[in-house]
Amino acid sequence: RSQDVLYRYIEDERLSGKCPLPRQQVTEIIFVLKAVSTLIDSLKKTQPENVDDNTWAQVIALYPTLVECITCSSSEVCSALKEALVPFKDFMHPPVSKVQNGES
Questions:
Q1: Distance CA 47, CA 69 (A)
Q2: What's the CA gap between 21 and 98, in Å, rounded?
Q3: pLDDT tier at 101, thresholds 50, 70, 90
Q4: pTM higher than 0.85 for the full model?
Q5: Is the CB of residue 9 less than 8 Å from the CB of residue 29?
């Protein structure tokens, strides 16, 4: 669902030209961006082995779509986007369990 909201926002932003998007749509994208930020914060606090590989794949797959939002015209969206993008530095690839003394 988040990915769909992001795609729709990107497309509508392109098509709108200089016209602002409806407030409801801006509010929705800000909500999604904050949810992404919250998800990343939660993943940082969770042991890597407790996170499903599919979850990692979905989070990582959001990154290119978030980057496409960079050209947005709303300062509120840009602020929420920054909050969502900055933590991605820690999630550009799934973590690998550390092996110590031959055990994982």
A1: 30
A2: 47
A3: low
A4: no
A5: yes
